[in-house]
Amino acid sequence: MRLPLPFPLLSLLLLFLPANARRVQHPNLRQTAHMKTRAEEVKRAFVEAFEDYRTFAWGHDEVAPMTQRYSDTRNGWGATIVDSLSTMIVMGLDDLFESTLPFIASIDFTRPKTPGTVSVFETIIRYVGGLLSAYELSGAKHQVLVDQAEVLGHKLALAWTEGRGNGSDGKEPGRTNMPYTWMDFETDKPAVGVVGLATAGTNILEFRSLSRHTSNRTFLALAERAMGAVMGTTQFRPGLYGEMYNPQTDLVVSDKVSFGPNSDSFYEYLIKYAHMTGNAEPVYLQTWLDGVNSAMETMMFKSTVGAWTWLSNWSNRTGHDYMFSHLACYLPGNWLLGARLAHNSTIYARGLEIAESCAHTYAASPTGIGPEAWHYVPAGVTSNLVPHPYAGSKMGEMYDQRGFWVQDARFVLRPEVVESMFYAWRITGDPVWQERVWDAFQAVKKYCKAPAAYASLVTVESTEPAKKDESESFFYAELMKYFYLTFSDPDVINLDRYTITTEAHPLLLETQDFDYGPEPEWVVMGNEEQQPLAPATPTDGCGGPGGTGMGQLMMLMDFYVPALERCSAHQ
Ligand SMILES: *[C@@H]1O[C@H](CO)[C@@H](O)[C@H](O)[C@H]1NC(C)=O
Ligand SMILES: *[C@@H]1O[C@H](CO)[C@@H](O)[C@H](O)[C@H]1NC(C)=O
Ligand SMILES: *[C@@H]1O[C@H](CO)[C@@H](O)[C@H](O)[C@H]1NC(C)=O
Ligand SMILES: *[C@@H]1O[C@H](CO)[C@@H](O)[C@H](O)[C@H]1NC(C)=O
Ligand SMILES: *[C@@H]1O[C@H](CO)[C@@H](O)[C@H](O)[C@H]1NC(C)=O
After folding, report:
1. CA–CA separation, 550 vs 566, rounded Å?
2. Exposed site from 70, 74, 85, 508, fewest CB < 10 Å?
3. pLDDT category, 383, cuts 50, 70, 90?
4. Whose atoms come closest to the Cα of 289: which ligand?
5. Is 122 among the residues known to form the active site?
6. Could you tell me if the CB of 206 is within 6 A of ligand 4?
7. Dmax of the chain from CA atoms?
8. Rg, C-alpha atoms of the chain
9. DSSP 3-state helix, strand, coil percentages of the chain (rounded to 5)?
10. CA pseudo-torsion sign 426, 432, 437, 442
11. Is residue 412 within 8 Å of 470, Cβ to Cβ?
12. Is 561 inside a domain boundary?
């Protein structure tokens, strides 16, 4: 591993990005006066929401939007404040940002303010990522941001302990390669148990930045160890990994492959880390490409109605669940990013199709906001055991109209669909994406605005939806930021200068070079031949040709009872 560039030198270099050093962002973007007005409106909405948080919940993790009280679900360190910092700077709200610094300095990150353990994943992406991004975006002036991130870093580093190695097995005694899921900050010990793919694999952007700013290489070394351990485990297809691991053995304990919860951001970080480092170590990009390729071959389907492109959940043992989720809709934006870096027009085209499909879940919903999770019937799968909704049922009608039927109708102020629309805008330059984001912003304002700030919805299927008394900090970190960046000057968080973490905290790229062949021609869409989605041989729904069936469906009053039959039982 080469040593990271010293930060001041790095910032200088990136200030003078040559005009032709584009790879990711479309070269012809500009901000019209109309978009400027929209950006201002988003900014106003953000400030109003944050002021509500200040009034009712200052210092707590979240405002409780319906009761105008507060909640503490992130250990009580003021998650909304820390998660909002980079959004404030991106929006040019420097005074607001600086007004929070005394609070930031006062947080005691060694001691949770609420009983219970600390989530390694959430703490890294929200707090560590939020602090470091704010440090970089504010010109590396406010050392307190790094100091506080470092306090957390030392505590979280202890999640890589309690290993069973004995030295002669190539493993350091008492150390693990992957972190555990939960840390006890009082005893400084992790809760021994399994760890999800996303927890093991979503820290390398934040820890590389932390190592750079503290000059302590340990953080990056831990993150590299975790990524290396995951990449060394079972691949169910090249680049596709199971959902759960035992950190004492580095063995996979669940063969479920998905791009949804527990797994998503591991895949996301492979390409973003390659981007950050200029592809200094090709294994990350290559693993990402392998996974995309395998996902296209094994897990990508079109719906029989509407031909929307989505992926499945897939297990090598039990076959597919044909469902996709709001969380997994980060994927099209991530594919578009990687397609530009690896100049691959197939990935670009498929990424755009899935972005269209995710956008469709918003456009087709009565509120203009898409649901948390949905089912579809895959085209080209021969098994007659594929779940269908009952013809004539509410879900059957929904499927006939929309090409998906809702499994979970909540909206918890998640960003992923808008996030992918943002990438689609910055990468294709097609203004239709700005219109879609604007529609989503209007819908969120209309349906989620609450007595204090914004609230989650119990269902997006009703135009008089009940609201929940919860308001995640990622509303401020992510959703509002992606709304804003879609209308802002395209040079704000230019995708050729920054990579954006899974919590939407921008971090500086370390180099403008990307070591992967020559700068490609801009991908031109048009008559590009559509590649067949399904493999040449009909699939049985088990992720391979031949065989008999995957699972059985029962539709009882619109309820879906998945997979009774096992693929392997028939092979
Ligand atoms: C670097 O961080 C690690 C992990 O917390 C710590 O054990 C080590 O003492 C630190 N090194 C220095 C030089 O501060
Ligand atoms: C160390 O652990 C490995 C793997 O569990 C085992 O095969 C080996 O016998 C152990 N060595 C000692 C000295 O305990
Ligand atoms: C996938 O399933 C097949 C058939 O059951 C089995 O032979 C193979 O070992 C499995 N692959 C992995 C990586 O577990
Ligand atoms: C698909 O996988 C995700 C992540 O493991 C999970 O949350 C979801 O419930 C799965 N859906 C089905 C139908 O298995
Ligand atoms: C682009 O990606 C697709 C899907 O992974 C792959 O099949 C194809 O070989 C790639 N093309 C190039 C030129 O690398």
Report:
1. 6
2. 70
3. confident
4. 5
5. yes
6. no
7. 66
8. 23
9. 40, 15, 45
10. positive
11. yes
12. no
* Tokens linked to 482: 């992606």
Q: Which residues of 50-76 are buried (b: 16+ CB within 10 A; e: fewer)?
A: bebbbebbebbbbbbbbebebbbebbb
Q: Which ligand is nearest to the CA of 256?
A: 4
DSSP letters along 312-337, please? -EEETTTEEE-EEETGGGGHHHHHHH
3-class DSSP state for residue 352? helix
Range of the structural domain that residue 79 is part of: 33-165+173-538
Instruction: Judge contact between 85 and 74, C-beta under 8 A.
Output: no
Tokens encoding 215: 């000059």
Q: Kindly state the DSSP code that residue 157 receives in the 8-state scheme.
A: G
Please identify, by atom number, the ligand 4 atom nearest to the C-alpha of residue 562: 13
* pTM for the whole structure: 0.90
Sequence-distant (6+) residues with CB within 8 A of 439 are 362, 363, 368
Non-local (6+) Cβ contacts of 147 within 8 A are none
Token duo for residue 160: 């890589």
| 562 ligand 4 Cβ < 6 A | yes
Residue in the block written with tokens 């939960």: 182
The one-letter amino acid at 263: S
Two structure tokens written together for 320: 């597919």
- Asked if 430 is an active-site residue, the reply is no
- Give the chain's mean pLDDT: 89
Instruction: Say whether 372 is catalytic.
Output: yes
Q: Whose CA is nearest to atom 14 of ligand 4?
A: 321
Ligand with an atom nearest the CA of residue 165: 2
- Give residue 164 CA to ligand 2 midpoint distance, Å: 9
Q: For the chain, count helices (H), then strands (E).
A: 20, 20
Q: Which two tokens stand for residue 105?
A: 């300095």
Is 470 one of the catalytic residues?
no
For the stretch 321-380, pLDDT in tens is 999 999 999 999 999 999 999 989 899 999 999 999 999 999 999 999 999 999 999 999
539 annotated as belonging to a binding site for a ligand: no
Output the CA–CA distances (angstroms, integers) from residue 241 to 161, 291, 550, in the order listed: 23, 9, 20
Assigned domain for 23 exists:
no
Q: Which of 40, 72, 98, 122 is catalytic?
A: 122
Most informative mutation of 257, 259, 267, 321 for ligand 4 (most atoms within 8 A of CB): 321
Looking at residue 491, its amino acid is D
Evaluate: CB of 341 within 6 angstroms of ligand 5.
no
| Domain-located, residue 10 | no
> Which CATH number belongs to the domain containing residue 300 in this structure?
1.50.10.10
- Atom index in ligand 3 nearest the CA of residue 316 equals 1
Residue 209 inside a domain? The answer is yes
